[in-house]
UniProtKB/TrEMBL annotation:
Catalyzes the deamination of adenosine to inosine at the wobble position 34 of tRNA(Arg2). Keywords: Hydrolase, Metal-binding, tRNA processing, Zinc. The active site is at E57 (proton donor). This is tRNA-specific adenosine deaminase. Homodimer. Coiled coil: none annotated. Its cofactor is Zn(2+). Zn(2+) binds at H55, C86, C89.
Amino acid sequence: MTPEIDAAMGRALELAAAAVEWGDTPIGAVVLGPDGAVLAEAANEREKRGDPTAHAEVLALRAAAQVFGDGWRLTGATLVVTLEPCTMCAGASVLARVARVVYGADDPKAGAAGSLWDVVRDRRLNHRPEVTAGVRAEESATLLRAFFRAQRGL
């Protein structure tokens, strides 16, 4: 793991923790440019915005597309996210042409980077980003477990 990836995951974890303040599932995402510089970052805002598509990954990819590339292609970019992307977010990563997806905790219930589905490696699609799983996974999983325990009053 490079220092840039570690720092980006640290920031994504901070963003994830902040999402709890407005009642969202603690997921954070950071998009790095090909040079490792931060292009954009976001936390989950589904509850905050009342928008089912306001996942951290989608928000970060949208913001990165505004400052990098040709308006939507994020060629050479890396998406760093605390939880394995769902089908929507994995699809958005493929469509945005990111080079790499780096995530923390696996999501056996909804993950689409190998756990339940494997959208990012589907050979029928015209782009397949490199995937690195398990980066600071326990920190990500701890945030998620604490959030869902609190939601259930445990």
